[in-house]
Design a protein that fits this description.
Layout (H helix, E strand, L loop, with lengths): L1 H17 L4 H13 L3 H14 L4 H13 L3 H14 L4 H13 L3 H14 L4 H21 L47 H4 L17 H16 L3 H8 L3
Length: about 240
Amino acid sequence: MQGKFARAIDRCYLALKYQPNFAPAYLTIGNAWHAQNDLEKAIQAYSQALRIQPDFAEASANLGSMYYKLGQLDSAANCYQKALDINPSLRAVQLMLGSVLQQQGKLDAAIVCYQKVLEMQPKDPATAEKLANLLQEKDRQTASENFIELETESGAQQAISVNKDEGYGLQPSSINLPPVKTTENLDTTFTNPEEISEPVAPLNLPDSAPTANFQAVEQYKILAENCLVKGKIKEAIAPASKP
């Protein structure tokens, strides 16, 4: 295979000796180097083709693919766009441009590219799936942009803004409440209280022995009160101590 590509390159350079400004020869040379994964030499060949023929859409598209493989997305997008300006019917290039724009976060532009691809080939399931996924991503991005903003970069508390489309349907939360001090470990797995509760010690209640009834102590009460009235304190205490 390597020998085949080498012969193709040699023949192209031979043709260029007779017709130096034959841009398609440089396109073929670039394709041969690309097939051998020599991206730098491929870039040189495509660039030379464009210097000879600036409106060479295929050379611009292939140059964009080299930049894409090198991770140079801005250069790749520029080349793809230039190729499409020259020839808008290059469906594969439109698809690649959409992919680059999506990776750059330019979702609206990427959506337009995928829609154009489907206009050219409506029954392309791969592109239809890409477009559907991208539209979902766009919806998520829009939702995140409307999300509640709690603090500024300085950390100062700000009024809460909400998505009006949701009808201000905020639920109770602890967003603006100070943290509550607790010794509980909130990360502990829940355990059944019955499994960890210690047995309750019995209460030390006094024995329920028989007590004297009202009639039995009434006479001592009357005697003690009479003694207190007369100032006889010792005599007032004495009756109360009797069994």
